[in-house]
Amino acid sequence: MADLTVKLGTLTLKNPVMTASGTFGYGAEYEDFFPVSALGALVVKGIAPWASHGNATPRIAEVKGGMLNAIGLQGPGVEAFLTGEHYLPHLKQTGATVIVNIWGKSPADYALVAERLETEREAIAAIEINVSCPNVKEGGLSFGTDPKSMASVVSAVRAKTTIPIITKLSPNVSRIADFAIAAQDAGSDMISLINTIPAMAIDVNTWRPKLANITGGLSGPAVKPVAIKLVYEAAKAVSIPVIGMGGIMSGLDAVEFLLAGASAVAAGTATFGNPRAPLEVIEGINRYLDERGIKSVQEIIGQVKIGK
Amino acid sequence: MMDDVACPVLSNITLQDSYHKIIFDAPHIAASAKPGQFVHVEVDDTTEHVLRRPFSICDADAETGHLTLIYKVVGEGTAKLAKKPAGETCRILGPLGTAYQYKDDVFPVIAAGGFGSVSTMFLAKKTPRPGIIFMGARSKHDVLLVEEYRKLGWQVEIATDDGSEGFHGLITTLLLNHTNDFPAETKIFGCGPAPMLYALIKTVAPLKFPCDVSMEQHMGCGVGACFACVIKVKDPTSPDGWRYSRSCKEGVVYPSTEVYCG
């Protein structure tokens, strides 16, 4: 058994595997399949200051090697999250390392959520700022495609919380390094990427888009090479830890992200097809390391060989 | 007990046109499955098709451990399933979702649109006594399992859109024509396409009979995590009077009075 412990700044995780926000509900949904405390971290679905319905249906469509979603950040809002029996109070009892994804329509909205989460800082390992959701009209991606807007959100959150901050970057930008650096400079403790890639599919029988929202976000194995490239570039640009995600279906996929420079990874779409996928990714990383006699996962982080 | 297990295919045959019947050895599901529940089936263990396919449980036998599904080939995923020979396995997650609720003295009335008669077959086998099933379909080619229902003692009434069999018109009209025959202990169970179910909900609202409907939307995870498969349910605490409910978790079977039609 290799040492799977990873350090993300001040945060130490028992292994590098998280659940991608929006793919693991609020944690309780998958407790029938494995103890969620086995995860490196459990990242919950996006929390806003308010409760929100999300988008009309259909919200999901399968494509070759992946899927599109346009859920639209349906959620209970921060107050219900802090006190509702299915949310944080339940997560505290599971022993899981909890990361809370947050979103809003203005920097002040993000700051408000961060301020409320600060009241539970013992129970929350990190806050992940979602500035990259392609499926909401306001907020989301509109902050994530301009480094200055993004930095204003990160600064606003930083001012209200002592909890480590992760900024989740969009792949839909021309130079990822600019965004990684802007997040770092604004006080983000880590960055995570990629969010889904804006995409669309049309039903050739009905001539209608397959999603009610018309467009959505592409995830799954199809996006992995895009994600690897962006993680590689972002990790080179900053000194803060990078969390890599995008189409991780196996331990070997995760290893590829670690080699590219990610200090931790997240499984997302894989969980929809296989509820035990995050656990199998952890086991797969361990097997890879054991087979090669590598004692610690930290030995492979960023070790992709470039040049001779 | 709900779980995710690799289940051997015992048989996989064509019923009629694009309709197929597959039987799995799935004791973990057969032991506890209730009418109205569904299973989430992995049709492809490569990464080409990343999502599972949800299917209503058509029959589940706790003694033999057999799980029967009837499915229509509508795309690449179901086409792959149709090619699975006996002996291969599929991972099956289930049983999932809520079940039809009824009392021991119930007189069951089923309103099944199109493919819905597959899902209600399991119900028809489990209710304490047979009742009446109203089947609505586009044409006579889309009417499924008539003989199977009759063998169980059910009265079968058929409505087709094109008049090629039975009543020429809507299933809800046909059902209303028969309500005088329904005893006091009647409960109505609806399964079918969304427009038919919303019409059914409105049709039964003024009647004195309770009604359960099986509602669904395009599904992702099947366990309530992804929030893809939502339908609107009434919620007096919401400013809009409704909220989105995850049909895989809080459904697929809902009391008709809880579904928001608007």
Describe the fold and architecture:
The complex is a heterodimer of chains A (308) and B (262). By secondary structure, chain A is an alpha/beta fold. The two termini of chain A are 32 Å apart. Chain A has one domain: Alpha-Beta Barrel (TIM Barrel). The longest helix of chain A is centred in the C-terminal third of the chain and has 15 residues, at 277-291. In chain A, a hairpin with a 4-residue loop joins strand 12 (202-203) and strand 13. Chain A is built from ten helices and 16 strands. In chain A, the strands form four sheets. In chain A, strands 3-16-15-10-9-8-7-4 form an eight-stranded parallel beta sheet. In chain A, helix 3 packs parallel to helix 5 (147-158) and helix 6 crosses helix 7. Chain B is an alpha/beta fold. Chain B has three domains: 3-96, Elongation Factor Tu (Ef-tu), domain 3; 97-211, Nucleotide-binding domain of ferredoxin-NADP reductase (FNR) module (Rossmann fold, 3-Layer(aba) Sandwich), CATH 3.40.50; 215-262, Dihydroorotate dehydrogenase B (pyrk subunit), domain 3, CATH 2.10.240. Helix content of chain B is 18%, strand content 35%. Chain B is built from six helices and 16 strands. Chain B has helices at 27-30, 76-82, 116-126, 146-151, 171-178, 194-204, and strands at 3-16, 19-25, 38-41, 53-56, 59-61, 66-72, 89-96, 107-113, 132-137, 155-160, 167-168, 186-191, 211-214, 230-234, 242-246, 253-255. In chain B, the strands form three sheets. Chain B has a seven-stranded antiparallel beta sheet with strand order 4-3-7-1-2-6-5. Chain B is globular, with a radius of gyration of 18 Å. The model of chain B has no long low-confidence stretch (mean pLDDT 96).
